[in-house]
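Whether sequence alone determines local backbone shape is best considered at the level of individual chains. When preparing material for the folding task, we compiled for one chain both its residues and its backbone structure tokens. No coordinates are needed to read the tokens, only the vocabulary itself. For completeness, the protein is quoted in full, as a sequence line and a line of structure tokens:
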Amino acid sequence: MSQRSIAVVPRGVLVLFALGLAAQIGLKATAPPPRAAAEDLAPAPSIAALRLASFGDPVALGKALMLYLQAFDYQSGSKVPYRDLDYGRLEAWLARILDLDPRGQYPLLAASRLYAEVPVEAKQRSMLEFVYRQFLLDPNRRWPWLAHATAIAKHRLHDLPLALRYARAIQRYAVADDVPLWAKQMEIFILEDMNELETARLIIGGYLQSGRVKDPAELRFLDERLKQLEARIGKTPGKN
């Protein structure tokens, strides 16, 4: 098949083609970068659908979905701040990932240390409650994330009753031998901050009398703490 030389193309056609090409390049260069909208985060699929899609390896799928979720703010070539995400959908995705990989810790790490620290109080509280609910499903392995949620409630939200609720859950449900004493003692420190000194004293006394604390250093610490509390109670107006 013979090809015609470009020289035979009318000059007017070449000019129009050049102008069209230049216009297209100009529009592309001046157009704003694509923006990913927070609402573009799709609803999480059902756990049944995800298990079917996992081809017998739900843990691997869970890890892949976590990577997708955490990288979502970079989709479409631009960043969506975490604070703008639909937290209802976000929690559903995190819950599905934990359903696929119940022993996985990364979803709760992200929930407590990333998504719960956005500067939007309602979303902070929502994510802290998500961490609390997930903690109750496996307290002996998920207590670190509720401990961090306790710290956020206390120091970021300045909500001591909420922090106390979380700290009490750790003390009550995280009963494995490898749960450190400091995590179980968070309740005591928050009670002191709330000036509930007598309650804190009773809890420490219960620890000492229970025989559950074996480490000599921890026993000395609790005993010293008890003496400090008793001294503070004795100095409280109205106390003998």
Summary: DSSP finds twelve helices and no strands in the chain. The longest helix spans residues 11-30.
